Task: structure prediction
Amino acid sequence: MGIHFLTLFGDRSNCHTMLIHQRTLDKEVSLWGTGLHTGKECMITFKPAPVNYGYRFIRTDIAESPEIPALIDNVVDVLRGTTIAVGEVKVHTTEHVLAALYGLQIDNCRIEMSGPEPPVMDGSSQPFGEALQGAGFKEQDEPKNYLVIDETIEYHDTLNSVDIVALPLDDFRATVMVDYKNPALGSQHSGLFNLEKEFMTEFSPSRTFCFLSEVETLANQGIIKGGDVDNAVVIIDKQMEKTELLTLGEKLGLESDHLVLGKNGILNNRELRFANEPARHKLLDLLGDIALLGMPVKAQVLAARPGHASNVEFVRQLKKYADRNKLARQYQHEKKAGVIFDINAIQNILPHRYPFLLIDKIVEFKLDEKIVSIKNVTMNEPFFQGHFPGNPVMPGVLIIEAMAQTGGIMMLNGKNNTKESVVYFMAIDKARFRKPVLPGDTLVIEAVMTNMRRSVCQFDAKAFVRGELVCEASLMATVMDKPAEKK
Result:
């Protein structure tokens, strides 16, 4: 897929300089309208916010005005839109609002709403973008907290033929390809290469769309209570008799003669704003969902057949990458090729010291998923003096301990202060020792998390020497606060 996209969109080398400082609004601005799916009226007000505030929705129609931060961990539903929630308080269909904020490179905004869903307006982000531009922007003293992608991050959904990839780039670009295998739409692609120059004119006007065959089902499910031919592009993928159109119009609350099959392939002969408007809208949705990361991204994002469900899973991967990088910045002060944590960083994370610190570096780390460590085994190891004289062999129990220390780093990643925490063994299961480990060997230890509940973790670990399995075990451990020192 990557080659396909690079061929389509090439290497536009006109990279622009991305903003350095955070920005918010200069003044507040409001819009009024009806929500697409809930059909409820809502006043949405965008307000200036302080540095590092991010995007937060405030439900002013509910007692005590609860706050819902626009973050990926708060996503609760992706059916025909991205819904976020804290507890029972929800905000539906956030993507068009968030796309406008992200596309205009606004970092901090308080979004007050008098209902559960932003107004759909014309089905695009343009009305929001124009309102935000009208409010003006204010540069803030704090630098932007970019997530800089320096390795390929991939999301694949084979069942639905979805592929989304982020590639390293000191800029932001996004390209989208859609292919519904439907002659009414066919294959389309679109690419955004400069947020500042292209977002408002080329992408924010693109409207949400669906197929005529979907409309009746959606109406029956009560999903598009605010739907209208004026706030969505309906692509004709089936023929309907006049009576069927009348029935459909009644379900949507439209006048009896309001729906006609268009001769241009669009319901009511509506004109597309762009020949590839559906592909552009998919890119717009992608931007809105990426905004849930909570920080701007420097990367080239390539997406084939994306939707809200896949976008959200892709952003979850970006968040794990961001969390891992945050952890690396916290402990690994010198960037080294092929190393996530060196021995100095490891000593800042783990309490172990000579002669019981049994890993030398971490070379791979996927947050809450997998970690790979290296242990260089030398004749200088103190245990070789007695295990065994004339026949030095690394004790199997110490290989298990090296595995546990490797998994311990994976468990301590979520702790703000690892020096106040310690990992304790709870169980060892299915331990097998396949081959002896000798001086001069390099142990490559791979630990894969299988279950994490609160402070208890289960992970499978394997140790290799020159690609051959030498030891494996299933381990269970828990993270606890370090006991207070006795005075």
